[in-house]
Specification:
Layout: E1 5-10, E2 30-36, H1 43-50, H2 53-65, E3 69-75, H3 88-101, E4 106-110, H4 114-117, H5 123-137, E5 144-147, H6 163-171, E6 177-181, H7 192-196, H8 208-213, E7 221-226, H9 239-251, E8 257-261, H10 268-275
Parallel strand pairs: 1-2, 1-8, 2-3, 3-4, 4-5, 5-6, 6-7, 7-8
Helix pairs in contact: 3-5, 5-6, 9-10
Organism: Roridomyces roridus
Domain GH18: 4-281
Pfam family, one: Glyco_hydro_18
Length: 281
């Protein structure tokens, strides 16, 4: 998509024979089927692969006509590809092959190997090799490629290899945007100011405009939030308040967009309200 991106993740069971109607996603322009692992599929990434080719083709055409790209998301919470010793190039080739075989628009890397991110010489190196290999499979301009880091990983000088600032320095130019998880961090990122301008002392310089000040392009910083309180452990901001946060961000030059975990709680009604003050549907 050109302009702001509005991303919904889709991991919860909906149907074994179809995706949601595009009208249920009006206001979104990217739908992320979750999840693919280094060499296997679960949940809605598996559902998509198990649909017959005609259903996939028809669904893809319906979504495309509604302006919605369909991508696959990799990993999520649980898998530890680096710690587990997965080969990054083999994993990238498996994921890239899935995208091409099943006719998707790209891939999102929801890497949550927490132990590796805290271990010198592992996460940043693995993600660098992996991302280069996956981008070679899915050429820039033809396929979407994004990462979905936890917001604290952008705090400078806090993580080995400088965490996601290190990832960005190595492969940021290969990525279309970051679906940043501004949640599951207690009270952090739960006000507009904490989300946008000044994060807490626990994870300094990890609010949106602070990440940008540390060298990540503002237009790649997509604001990720849970759809309801039940969709994350913490970090929820109600849609009306979040709508105001996005207006503040827009007025300061931001136009990246927003992401939510997850459909069906994050549906057309949710995104319509969230966008209402900044980029109305």
């Amino acid at each position: 998509p050109s302009g702001p991106v509005w991303v919904a993740y889709f991991d919860r069971f909906f149907s074994s024979s179809s995706l949601p109607a595009p009208s249920d996603l009006s206001g979104f322009n990217v739908f992320a089927l979750s999840f693919i692992y280094s060499s296997s599929l679960i949940d809605n990434a598996a559902v998509w692969a198990n649909l017959d080719a005609t259903t996939r083709s028809n669904t893809k055409a319906q979504y495309a006509s509604a302006g919605i790209s369909i991508i696959v998301s990799a990993y999520g919470y649980g898998p530890t590809p680096t710690t587990s010793g997965d080969d990054p190039t083999a994993a990238a080739n498996y994921i890239g092959n899935y995208v091409k075989t099943y006719g998707l628009d790209g891939a999102d890397i929801d890497y949550e190997d927490l132990g590796a991110m805290e271990t010198a010489g592992t996460a940043v190196a693995w993600l660098t090799t992996f991302t280069k290999a996956l981008r070679a499979q899915l050429p820039q301009g033809q396929y979407i490629l994004t990462h979905a880091p936890l917001a604290p990983w952008f705090s400078p000088n806090l993580w080995p290899g400088n965490g996601y600032l290190g990832v960005h320095a190595a492969v940021g130019g290969l990525l279309d945007w970051y679906n940043i998880q501004f949640y599951n961090q207690g009270a952090d990122y739960t006000t507009c100011s904490g989300l946008l301008s000044t994060s807490s002392g626990t994870y300094p310089q990890s609010a949106v405009f602070q990440i940008a000040a540390n060298g990540v392009p503002l237009n790649k910083l997509v604001i990720g939030k849970p759809s309801t309180t039940s969709d994350a452990g913490s970090g929820y901001i109600d849609p009306a308040t979040l709508s105001g946060c996005l207006l503040q961000a827009k007025n300061s030059g931001w136009s990246a967009g927003a992401m939510t975990w997850q459909y069906p709680n994050g549906d057309s009604a949710w995104i319509t309200q969230v966008r209402s003050q900044s980029f109305p549907v």
